[in-house]
Write a structure and sequence with these properties.
This protein has 120 residues and is an alpha+beta fold. The chain has four helices and five strands. The protein has one domain: Alpha-Beta Plaits. A five-stranded mixed sheet has the order 2-3-1-4-5. Helix 2 runs parallel beside helix 4.
């Protein structure tokens, strides 16, 4: 069963540097405000488990995901000074993931190909 869903989700996990939780949470609020301006962003938020933070984010397609990365680039640079990237995943159909592979290679992500499903 093939899917017509073109959406892409990004799943980054970060470990917050010791004593930096307050600064990270302040940056999260800035990320939220910046991401709200993106028409291709379907959802966006942060979840915490102690000093590990997960950014839950979804986009209409790879172009919207790339636009997001460009939009929040300066914030991401600040964020990376306060955290260590533990894991980065991209989920979506292969045609969309192909658009992300080169542009995100420096982050060493894992790509999960969506093969079955539906979208309402």
């Amino acid at each position: 069963m093939a899917t017509q869903d073109k959406s892409v989700s990004i799943a980054p996990y970060f470990k917050i540097h010791s004593g930096k939780v307050r600064e990270v949470k302040a940056l999260c609020e800035r990320f939220i405000e910046k991401s709200k301006t993106e028409p291709g962003c379907l959802y966006y938020g942060f979840s915490f488990n102690g000093d590990v933070i997960f950014c839950r984010e979804g986009y209409q397609d790879a172009d919207a995901a790339l636009a997001h990365l460009q939009n929040v680039g300066p914030l991401l640079a600040e964020f990376q000074k306060l955290t260590n990237l533990l894991r980065l995943e991209f989920h979506g159909p292969e045609a969309e993931l192909a658009k992300l592979r080169g542009a995100t290679a420096d982050y060493k992500p894992e790509f999960f190909v969506l093969e079955y499903g539906f979208r309402r």
